[in-house]
Amino acid sequence: MTKKQLEESIDFLKQKGFEAPEIGIVLGTGLGQLVNEIEDQIVAHYHQIPYFPLATVEFHSGKLIYGTLQGKKVAVMQGRFHLYEGYDLKDVTYPIRVLHGLGIKKLFISNAAGAINLDFKKGDIMLIEDHINLQGGSPLAFKNVSEFGERFVDMSEPYDTEMGQKIETIAKANNIVLRKGVYASVVGPQLETKAEYRMLKILGADAVGMSTVPEVIVANHLNLPIVAISVLTDECDPDNLEPINVQEIIEIAGKAEPKMIQLFKELIEGA
C-alpha cells in the first residue's frame, strides 16, 4: 500500500460523486438492509475501485454506497473483507483508509458474532466496549506505516464512549435490549471447538467473530471515533454445542437487523 494508491482510490470515488461523507458504515454478515434506507444513492462496486480488494464471501455483496441517511451524507460498505479470504491485514483495512480519505468523521461498524456470555441469547444486540485481538497480527505492522500516522497507537479506549452512551439511550427509548461486552476476533473461517469456546470465556470475551478488530485498530490510527455493534447469531455453550448452520446464522442476523438499523439511524440523526 502506498499513498499514491490510496489517492487513486479516493480520487476515483470523488469523481463518481462521493463528496465529503460525514459517516462511514461497515455492514457485517447478513446485515445489508440498512442500504435500503439510503436516499440518492451512488454505487461503486468494489471491483471498479482502484486497488480495492474483492469480497469473496457469497453473502457479502461487495459495494460501496454513498447517499443521504437521516439528513447526513454517508458512505456504506455493503460487504467487508476478512483474513480468512486470504487477504492480509492491510487489504482488510484498506477501505477504512479510503473512507477516511473521503472525509468521514465517524465510523459505525456492525458484525454477526457468537455469544460466549451465556446470559446473552441469539438475536440479541451487543455494544462492543472493548476487544481481544486473536488474529495473530496487526494492520499497522508494515514498514512504511509512519507515512500514514503514528506507528504506536494507544488502544486504552478504542471505542468512543460518547457514541456508546448515546446508543444506550436510544436503545432504552425504543425498548431494545442492548447487551454490552468484549468482542474477541479470531481468524476463522472454521468455527471454534468446545475447548476454544471455554478458552474465550476464560479470557473475558462475551462474543466472538472473525472481523471488526483490524478495522478498529486502523480507525484508531486515523483518530476516527468508532461505535461497533454485534448481532449475536448463535449461542456458544461448549456443554451443549450444536453443529453450526450458516443459513440459520444469516436468518437470525436478518431478524435482529431492524434493531441495529434503528440504533444507527437515530445515532446518525443526532450526530
UniProtKB/TrEMBL annotation:
Pathway the protein takes part in: Purine metabolism; purine nucleoside salvage
Superkingdom to which the source organism belongs: Bacteria
GO terms of molecular function: purine-nucleoside phosphorylase activity
Domain Nucleoside phosphorylase: residue ranges: 23-269
Database matches in CDD domains: PNP-EcPNPII_like (cd09009)
EC number from the UniProt entry: 2.4.2.1
Coiled-coil residue spans: none
InterPro entries: Nucleoside_phosphorylase_d, Nucleoside_phosphorylase_sf, Pur_Nuc_Pase_Ino/Guo-sp, Purine_phosphorylase
Sequence intervals crossing the membrane: none
Keyword Transferase included in the entry's annotation: yes
Sorted UniProt keywords: Glycosyltransferase, Transferase
Family, as annotated: Belongs to the PNP/MTAP phosphorylase family.
Protein function: The purine nucleoside phosphorylases catalyze the phosphorolytic breakdown of the N-glycosidic bond in the beta-(deoxy)ribonucleoside molecules, with the formation of the corresponding free purine bases and pentose-1-phosphate.
Descriptive protein name: Purine nucleoside phosphorylase
